[in-house]
Amino acid sequence: MTRSDIGNKSIKQLKNLFLIRGVIIMLKPPPKCMECKNFIKEEGIFALACKAFPSGIPQEIWNEKIIHDKPYLNDNGYRYDPKDK
Q1: Which of 11, 14, 20, 84 has a 20 to 30 Å separation from 27 between CA atoms?
Q2: Is the pLDDT of residue 10 over 50?
Q3: Under a CB-based contact definition with an 8 Å cutoff, are residues 49 and 77 in contact?
Q4: Closest alpha carbon to 40 in 29, 30, 53
Q5: Is the overall model pTM greater than 0.70, yes or no?
Q6: Dihedral, CA atoms, 46, 47, 49, 50, nearest 10 degrees?
């Protein structure tokens, strides 16, 4: 994730990320979204997006107020699907 990527997201979505000397630090355990097969991860960065929400993961899902294991408005038919370990 770059500094410009951070500028494009809301403070609520980034509440567990900090930029210190150009390094992004996550202080809490990562959101479940990051453990999902559908999470979009690009070389060297991650976007707050997935196959279900390519334009941005809703805050209530990213912040785990809602677990995305059931249909959610405009989720393109995708649900939380944990990565194989």
Answers
A1: 84
A2: no
A3: no
A4: 53
A5: no
A6: -30
